[in-house]
C-alpha cells in the first residue's frame, strides 16, 4: 500500500522510529565511547529503575499485596477491597443515582468510565459491550471481577499523573491486577469462602478456587487457576419500607444488590528459552451471570420485573474469552524488552431493556433478548535501556501500543430505534500509540521522570499526553513528590456511532427555557461521530515520610476536566422537529459539555505500636477528602461521592499462629445534584436529600492450623449499620444504594 494514502499515521511512526533510533544511538555510543567522549561506557552506567517503576513511587500509587487480600478477603468482587485505598470510592458514572447498587471503582472522583482496568498490564474492556444510557450509566458490574482472589499476586492502583502513560480511559487512574506466576516447584492451593448475613434479606456468598503451578519439563512450566462462586441477590422486599413501595404481583421496591454467578478458568504456559528470554502463552474463559433483584433506572416497575426478581432469574450473562502471547527479554545491565499480543472477546447476552421515557432500563418482555459481541485486539511492546547523558544517569523507555475494538450490537440499532432502518449494527475504532519516557537522576536527591505519549484514533484524530513526575529527598526519610500530566478518553463505541439511538416518547424530553414548558416528544438522542475526546490536566504534589515503621504522607491533587461527553438534552439548543419514519421528532445528540474541576487531599499515617517497625502491632490509616467535584458551568457534581473517606486498620500478630485484624471505614456526607440536566428541570423535595456520614467496622482473626492449612473467621459491619435505597433514580437524592447489615464469614486455605 502506498504510504501517501495514510498521512494521519505518519507522526506515530515518526515518533516511534525517532525514539528507537535515539535509544539505539545512545546504546551504541555508550558501548564504544570513553569518558573523554562525553558519554561513559555502558559498564560504568548505574542502572536506575525504569520510568514505569519510578512512577509507581509517586504519591498517587497504592499496592495491595497477596497478604492484604488474605487479611481482608472480598466476598466476590475485588472492588470491595480496592475501595479501601486512598483516592478510591465506589460510585456510578453520573450523579443520577441510576443503578445505585452497581457502583464501580471511581478514582479521585473522575467516574468509573475513567478508570482503566488491566490484568497483567493488558486492558480489559468487557463493560464496553454494554449499552450506555442517556445519563452515562451502564447496567454493569464493571471489569473488576474477572480474576478470582486466590490467583492474585498484587493489585497496583495508580491515580492521577501516574496513569497518563496508559492512554485513553486512564484519566482517573489505572487498576492493574497482577496474577501469580508459575513456580519452580510443583505447588498449589485450594481456598473455600463462605459469607452468611445475619438478616436473610441480604444475599450470602459461597466460592471455591484453586491455584496450581510447577514445572512440566526442562525450561517449561505452567500455572492454572479456577474459580466457582455465587453471591445471592438481596430479597425483593428489602427496600420496601424505606421507599414506601410494597411488593406486589405488578411492582417491586427499588432493588437491593444484584447477585452474580461466576465461573473462571485460566491457564498459562511459560517457556524459558534461556536465562535471558522467555515466552508466555495464556488463555482464559469466564462466565458471569446476574441474579436479578429488580434493577431498573426509575421508580416504576411492572409485572415482569416483579416476577423475574421473585425468581432470581438471570437476565444478563457475559462470557469473556481472553488470550495472549508475550516475549520478555533481558539483555543485561538494565536493558529489557517486552512484546505482547492480546485478544479479548466478550459475548453479552441479556433480556432487552427499554429505551423510552420511564421504561428506560426496564424489562417488559421476558421472551425478548439480544446479544452484543465485542472483540478487542491489543499489540504492545517496550524497550528499556540505561544511558548516561551529560554525566546524568538515565533509564529510557520507548514503547508502542495498537488497540482495535469492534462491536456488534443489533439491539442498539434495530428498526424502530434508529434513524436508518438499514443501519449497520457494527462499529469499530482503532488507536495506535507510541510513547517515550525517561527516569533521570539529576542529582543524588532529585529524580525526574518525563514522558510523552502520542495516540492516533481512527475517528477522533491525534492526542498528545505529556507527563512529568519528580521526587526530591529533603532528608533521608522525608520526600517531596509531585507530578503533572495530560490525559484523555476517546468517545466509546455507542457514543460515537451515529446509528445508535436513544428515544423517549415525551416524559424524558427537556423543558424549554423560554416557555418553561416540556418540549413535545418524541425526542431522540443519536450517537455523534463528530465528538471530541474528553481531556484532563491532572496535578498532584505531596510529602512522604518513612522511618522505622512510621509512614506518613499528604498529597493535594487537582484535575481540570473538559469535554465530558453527555446526553443532557436540557443543555443543548432545542432542535426543530423533523420527520423520521413518518413521525415528527426532535433530534438531539451526545455532545461535549463544558469544564469541570476536581480537587482533593489524600493522606496516610502508619503507627508502629509493638515490635520492631510495628511487626507485632500497628495502626494504618488513609484519608481521602474531596474539596470540590463539580462542573464549572452548571455547578453540579460529576458523581455522588462522600466528602471524606477514612480507612483504619489495626493489625495484631498475636504469635506465630494467631493474628487479629480490626477495621473501620468512615464515610462523609454525600450530596445529590440540584438540577437535572437531562431535561433541564430543577430538583425539588426528596430529590435533594443528602446521605449523612456513617461508619462501618469489621473484625477478623486468622489461625495457622498446620504448616499448609490456615483459617480466617470474621465479621463485617460489626455494629450492624444498615442503609437502604429509597429510589431507583434520583427521587431520594443521594440515598440510592444499600449498605448491608452484619455478616459473618469464614475462609479456609489448604496448600502444598
From TrEMBL:
Signal sequence coordinates: 1-30
Domain of life of the source: Bacteria
TonB-dependent receptor plug domain segment(s): 60-174
Domain TonB-dependent receptor-like beta-barrel: 311-718
Protein family (similarity comment): Belongs to the TonB-dependent receptor family.
Keywords, alphabetical: Cell outer membrane, Membrane, Receptor, Signal, TonB box, Transmembrane, Transmembrane beta strand, Transport
Protein localization: Cell outer membrane
Chain location of the short sequence motif TonB C-terminal box per the record: 735-752
Name of the featured protein: FepA family TonB-dependent siderophore receptor
Biased composition (Polar residues): 240-251
Membrane topology: Multi-pass membrane protein
PROSITE patterns: TONB_DEPENDENT_REC_2 (PS01156), TONB_DEPENDENT_REC_3 (PS52016)
Keyword Kinase: no
SUPFAM superfamilies per UniProt: Porins (SSF56935)
Region (Disordered): 239-259
InterPro entries named in the record: Beta-barrel_TonB (IPR000531), Beta-barrel_TonB_sf (IPR036942), PirA/FepA/PfeA (IPR058134), Plug_dom (IPR012910), Plug_dom_sf (IPR037066), TonB-dep_rcpt-like (IPR039426), TonB_rcpt_CS (IPR010917)
Amino acid at each position: 500500500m502506498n504510504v501517501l494514502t495514510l498521512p494521519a499515521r505518519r507522526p506515530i511512526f515518526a515518533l516511534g522510529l525517532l525514539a528507537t533510533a535515539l535509544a539505539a544511538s545512545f546504546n551504541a555510543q555508550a558501548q564504544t565511547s570513553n569518558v573523554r567522549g562525553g558519554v561513559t561506557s555502558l559498564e560504568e552506567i548505574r542502572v536506575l529503575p525504569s520510568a514505569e517503576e519510578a512512577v509507581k513511587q509517586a504519591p498517587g500509587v497504592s499496592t495491595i499485596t497477596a497478604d492484604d487480600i488474605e487479611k481482608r478477603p472480598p466476598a466476590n468482587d475485588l472492588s470491595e477491597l480496592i475501595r479501601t485505598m486512598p483516592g478510591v470510592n465506589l460510585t456510578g458514572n453520573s450523579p443520577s443515582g441510576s443503578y445505585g447498587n452497581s457502583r464501580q471503582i471511581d478514582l479521585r472522583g473522575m467516574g468509573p468510565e475513567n478508570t482503566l482496568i488491566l490484568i497483567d498490564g493488558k486492558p480489559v474492556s468487557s463493560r464496553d459491550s454494554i449499552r450506555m444510557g442517556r445519563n452515562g450509566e451502564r447496567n454493569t458490574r464493571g471489569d473488576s471481577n474477572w480474576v478470582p482472589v486466590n490467583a492474585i499476586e498484587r493489585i497496583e492502583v495508580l491515580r492521577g499523573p501516574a496513569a497518563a502513560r496508559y492512554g485513553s480511559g486512564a484519566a482517573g487512574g489505572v487498576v492493574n491486577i497482577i496474577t501469580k506466576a508459575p513456580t519452580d516447584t510443583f505447588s498449589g492451593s485450594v481456598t473455600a469462602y463462605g459469607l452468611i448475613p445475619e438478616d436473610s434479606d441480604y444475599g450470602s456468598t459461597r466460592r471455591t478456587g484453586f491455584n496450581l503451578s510447577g514445572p512440566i519439563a526442562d525450561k517449561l512450566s505452567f500455572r492454572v487457576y479456577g474459580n466457582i462462586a455465587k453471591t445471592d441477590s438481596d430479597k425483593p422486599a428489602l427496600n420496601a419500607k424505606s421507599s414506601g413501595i410494597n411488593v406486589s404481583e405488578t411492582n417491586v421496591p427499588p432493588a437491593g444488590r444484584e447477585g452474580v454467578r461466576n465461573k473462571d478458568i485460566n491457564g498459562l504456559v511459560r517457556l524459558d528459552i534461556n536465562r535471558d528470554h522467555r515466552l508466555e502463552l495464556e488463555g482464559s474463559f469466564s462466565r458471569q451471570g446476574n441474579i436479578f433483584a429488580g434493577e431498573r433506572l426509575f421508580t416504576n416497575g411492572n409485572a415482569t420485573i416483579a416476577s423475574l426478581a421473585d425468581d432470581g432469574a438471570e437476565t444478563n450473562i457475559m462470557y469473556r474469552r481472553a488470550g495472549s502471547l508475550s516475549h520478555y527479554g533481558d539483555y543485561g545491565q538494565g536493558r529489557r524488552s517486552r512484546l505482547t499480543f492480546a485478544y479479548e472477546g466478550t459475548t453479552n447476552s441479556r433480556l432487552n431493556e427499554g429505551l423510552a421515557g420511564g421504561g428506560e432500563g426496564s424489562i417488559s418482555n421476558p421472551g425478548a433478548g439480544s446479544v452484543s459481541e465485542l472483540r478487542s485486539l491489543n499489540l504492545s511492546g517496550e524497550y528499556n535501556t540505561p544511558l548516561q547523558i551529560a554525566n546524568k544517569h538515565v533509564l529510557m523507555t520507548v514503547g508502542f501500543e495498537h488497540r482495535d475494538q469492534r462491536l456488534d450490537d443489533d439491539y442498539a440499532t434495530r428498526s424502530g430505534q434508529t434513524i436508518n432502518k438499514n443501519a449497520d449494527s457494527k462499529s469499530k475504532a482503532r488507536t495506535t500509540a507510541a510513547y517515550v519516557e525517561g527516569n533521570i537522576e539529576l542529582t543524588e536527591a532529585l529524580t525526574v521522570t518525563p514522558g510523552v505519549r502520542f495516540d492516533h484514533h481512527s475517528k477522533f484524530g491525534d492526542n498528545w499526553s505529556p507527563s512529568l513526575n519528580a521526587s526530591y529527598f529533603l532528608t533521608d526519610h522525608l520526600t517531596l513528590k509531585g507530578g503533572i500530566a495530560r490525559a484523555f478518553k476517546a468517545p466509546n463505541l455507542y457514543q460515537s456511532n451515529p446509528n445508535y439511538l436513544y428515544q423517549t416518547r415525551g416524559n424524558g424530553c427537556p423543558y424549554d427555557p423560554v416557555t418553561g414548558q416540556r418540549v413535545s416528544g418524541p425526542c431522540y438522542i443519536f450517537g455523534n461521530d463528530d465528538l471530541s475526546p474528553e481531556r484532563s490536566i491532572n496535578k498532584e504534589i505531596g510529602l512522604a515520610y518513612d522511618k522505622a515503621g512510621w509512614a506518613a504522607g499528604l498529597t493535594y491533587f487537582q484535575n481540570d476536566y473538559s469535554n465530558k461527553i453527555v446526553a443532557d438534552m436540557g443543555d443543548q439548543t432545542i432542535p426543530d422537529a423533523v420527520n423520521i419514519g413518518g413521525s415528527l421528532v426532535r433530534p438531539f445528540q451526545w455532545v461535549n459539555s463544558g469544564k469541570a474541576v476536581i480537587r482533593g487531599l489524600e493522606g496516610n499515617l502508619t503507627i508502629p505500636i509493638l515490635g520492631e517497625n510495628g511487626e507485632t502491632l500497628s495502626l494504618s490509616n488513609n484519608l481521602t477528602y474531596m474539596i470540590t467535584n463539580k462542573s464549572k458551568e452548571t455547578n453540579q457534581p460529576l458523581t455522588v461521592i462522600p466528602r471524606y473517606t477514612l480507612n483504619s486498620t489495626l493489625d495484631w500478630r498475636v504469635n506465630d499462629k494467631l493474628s487479629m485484624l480490626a477495621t473501620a471505614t468512615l464515610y462523609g456526607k454525600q450530596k445529590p445534584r440540584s438540577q437535572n440536566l437531562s431535561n433541564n428541570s430543577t430538583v425539588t423535595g426528596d430529590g435533594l436529600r443528602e446521605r449523612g456520614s456513617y461508619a462501618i467496622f469489621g473484625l477478623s482473626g486468622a489461625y495457622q492450623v498446620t504448616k499448609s492449612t490456615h483459617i480466617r473467621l470474621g465479621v463485617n459491619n460489626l455494629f450492624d449499620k444498615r442503609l437502604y435505597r429509597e429510589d431507583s433514580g434520583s427521587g431520594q437524592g443521594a440515598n440510592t444504594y444499600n449498605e448491608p447489615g452484619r455478616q459473618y464469614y469464614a475462609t479456609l486455605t489448604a496448600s502444598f
